[in-house]
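Two proteins were folded this term; both appear here.
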Amino acid sequence: AEMQAFTAAANHIGGKYLNDCTLYVTLEPCPMCAAASLWVQLGEIVYGASDPKRGYTTLHANLLHPKTKVRSGILAAECSEIITSFFKKKR
């Protein structure tokens, strides 16, 4: 989903860098999306729940662009509940 957001934002802005953009997500980005955020030079990532199994920080926190700001744990319990509920409904 993050990669689609990057593409849509870049198309809307008309450039490939998103230094003035913030990505808001319920779950910590995976390594692939974190690396994609590096290429678009994303300004900030704000996420709620950490992903201890597949989140980018489990691999390497330096997957992000050096200037990308990160805020984590924002409404973490609520975000975790949203994710848990979603997957319970899928089963």
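Next, the second protein.
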Amino acid sequence: MLSKKAKYALKALLYLSKNNLKGVTLIAEISENEGIPKKFLEQILLELKKQGILQSKRGKEGGYFLGKAPSEIIIGHVVRIIDGPLAPIPCVSKMAYRRCDECVDEKTCEIRNLFLLVRDATIEILDNTTLSQLEQKNIL
């Protein structure tokens, strides 16, 4: 499930993308227009800045702006930055694999096999969708 933090990150990125031509955008503006608590938004934007998704400018004319073109920002990458692995259960994760304690045989586990399909479909969609496509509602 997508966390509220990841949803806010995507909303903030969409806002910045739509306002990309005007330059820097204040946190307060994003917070007010997107209904995101300002302190929470500050943490999210700092994480995205550390990963190169955003850049910032300090001072009176300061604020945040995209560090890459919207067509280069992959939604799956953003979600992983904020929420970690995309796998719905640990035994199907590529990045944070952990065997389920109650599992007798992973190869024949119907639940694992189903969630492998869910993981693969999720990755296929999120890793092939850019911020630009999301903004233009040009998905799939």
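The radius of gyration is 18 Å. The mean pLDDT is 92. These notes refer to the second protein only.
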